[in-house]
Design goal:
Strand content: 15-25%
Number of helices: 14
Shape: globular
Strand order of the largest sheet: 1-2-3-4-5-6-7-8
């Protein structure tokens, strides 16, 4: 493998993490369809990252590997949401070339610490060594990938419960977190107001969580926007990691508008 491409690849590896550290707002879509073609289409829409969903979507590791590979040659960073912070779930995702892992339902300092252990090589964590396909995805020899992976892979945790919000002060003391996102869907359900995103109690709890993350200042604040206006408002409040919706939602909304427009 030519060494001429290695400096470029190393620079590409840390692009998203560097942008977040610089305070730039980044945008992405949740991908819920096990489809290389969906990745190829969304990767060229101008977003910064794509989050492949293994928590709630019917996507297996073989599809994840193909979808990560399909992001090559595009500006996006491939990220994967896993069901839990367990080594057997995280290792294959990272070894397929994902440059970020999203962990749901984080509600304690201990759970946050487990995410760091899962995504970082020693001495920062306990990630197992086997990066053949990750190194191939990013155009690096295995040992070169090993040197840069800890600094390039994003660790993203989701706060989805009142307990998680209450524990945020402790969670934010964990070194190795890059993004703390307030997931309003699960949080609304946890608070007993499922799907009522304008409910005063939910808005109060979300505001409290956002304030804690912003006050900490060393991790990026994330969340989901349900419209372009809401995304702009979130960016104005300090959000740097904004989920714009999902592939399924985009397709369904566009298809429905087309039919309604014709029939109207």
């Amino acid at each position: 493998m030519s060494t001429r491409s290695e400096p470029v690849a190393r620079g590409q590896l840390a692009t998203l993490k560097r942008r977040l550290a610089e305070g730039q707002a980044t945008l992405g879509y949740l991908v819920t369809t096990p489809s290389v073609q969906i990745v190829q289409a969304l990767a060229r829409t101008g977003v910064d990252w794509l989050m492949i969903d293994m928590e709630h979507a019917p996507i297996g590791i073989e599809s994840v590997a193909a979808m990560i590979a399909a992001s090559a040659g595009t500006p996006v960073t491939p990220i994967v949401r896993v069901p839990a912070a367990r080594a057997e779930l995280v290792k294959p995702v990272l070894d397929s070339g994902a440059l970020g892992v999203v962990f749901p339902q984080i509600a304690t300092r201990q759970e946050a610490e487990a995410t760091v252990q899962a995504v970082r090589y020693a001495p920062e964590g306990q990630r197992g060594y086997g990066p053949t396909y990750a190194a191939l995805r990013w155009g690096l020899p295995n040992l070169e990938y090993l040197k840069v992976a800890n600094d390039a892979v994003l660790n993203i945790v989701l706060i989805e419960s009142q307990a998680g919000v209450d524990a945020l002060d402790e969670i934010l003391t964990v070194r190795g977190l890059d993004v703390v996102a307030v997931a309003r869907g699960d949080l609304s359900q946890n608070l007993g107001v499922a799907g009522q995103f304008d409910h005063p109690h939910l808005r109060e709890v979300v505001a409290k969580a956002e304030a804690k993350v912003l006050a900490h200042g060393e991790v990026a604040l994330g969340g989901i926007a349900f419209s372009s206006d809401e995304a702009r408002a979130m960016i104005a409040r300090g959000h740097r990691f904004i989920v714009l919706g999902s592939d399924a939602g985009l397709i369904a909304d566009a298809a429905q508008r087309m039919v309604q427009t014709i029939r109207a």
